[in-house]
Amino acid sequence: MCITGILLAAGQSRRFGSDKLCQPLPNGIPIGIMAARQLQLATDKTVAVVSPQSTQLSTWLREEHITVMTCPQAIQGMGASIACGVTASSAAQAWVIALADMPFIQMATLHQLVTLLRQGRMIVAPQYHGKRGHPVGFNSRWYTELSQLQGEPGARALLQRYAEQITLFPCDDAGIHQDIDNELDLISI
What is the 3-state secondary structure (H, E, C) of 70-109? Predict the structure, then answer.
C-alpha cells in the first residue's frame, strides 16, 4: 500500500510577519523542513504543496528529495492546497495530510497513523487529552471529496460529515496540537 504524505506549506504566514516555514528552530533546522523530514520518514512518498512565492522553501524541499507542487490557488485556502496535493498523488492508496507549521509531532504518532491506514482504516487521526489533532490520514476512498475541496476550512466539513468513519487513537504527543503561528510561538520553544 502506497501512503503519500501531503505537506501543506502554502500558507501566507500573515500572523508571523515573514515566511515562518523558513525560520530556524533552536536546532537550526527550518520549521517547514523539520515537518517535511518527519513526514518523509513515516510515508512512502511525500508531496509538499507550496505557494508560488515560496521559492526558498521550495529549493530546500527539493534538496530533501521531496516532490514540490506549486499551487497558485492556495490563496483561496487550505482546501485548495489539499486538493492540489491529492490530485498530484492520485495513485496513492492513502494520504497523511500534515501541516508544515507543526514540526513537533512525534515519529511514534506518525508511524501509528500510517499503520492504521495500512490496516484499512478509512480516516485516522491522533488524539491527545481527548482532543483530535494533526495530521489526519485518509484512505483513497476519499479521493473525489479531497480532490474537490476549496476554501479555508480544508477537510473540516468532510471530517464532520463522516465522523463515524474516523479512527481516533490516543497518543502522548502534545505536538499534534502545537503549531507555530507567530514569533512568540517560536520563542517559547
Answer: ECHHHHHCHHHHHHHHHHHCCCCCEEEEEECCCCCCCHHH
Q: Which domain holds residue 142?
A: 3-187
* Helices 31-42 and 55-63, axial angle in degrees (round to 10): 40
Burial grade of 167 (CB within 10 A; 0-12, 13-18, 19 or more): middle
User: Side chain identity at 126, as an amino acid letter?
Assistant: P
What CATH number is attached to the domain comprising 159? 3.90.550.10
**Mutual angle of helices 107-118 and 31-42, in 10-degree steps:** 40
pLDDT tens track for 49-73: 999 998 999 999 999 999 999 999 9
